[in-house]
Amino acid sequence: MQVTLTQEATERIKSVEQPGKIIRINGELVGGCGMNVEYALWWDDASPDDQVIEVDSLTLVIDPQTIEHIDSDKLTIDFRQQQGFRLVTPAQILAYGIHLKDRWG
């Protein structure tokens, strides 16, 4: 998967960077009758089955199931002051209003 960070996203991440941690792009099925994918970005460690992606001197990881949910080989991570992070494919905006956080926090 090709991941691109906009300049705004890179600047925001570097302003809150946690040394020794990497960013996980996560997508999980949530809901009952109407299943949706909920996306998140959090500080984490890599797992053996993760795809590791180096972008602008930052390390990101993404698991195979999240790649399936994204359903695109290209993903852009953007940041807007009023909206937070956005995950965008060439076909659609997957999520916005995302905040980079600690996994368990």
UniProtKB/TrEMBL annotation:
Give every Core domain span: 1-101
Quote the SUPFAM superfamilies the UniProt record gives.
Answer: HesB-like domain
Which Pfam families does the UniProt entry name for this protein? Fe-S_biosyn
* Record's protein name: Core domain-containing protein
State the organism named in the record: Brevibacillus choshinensis
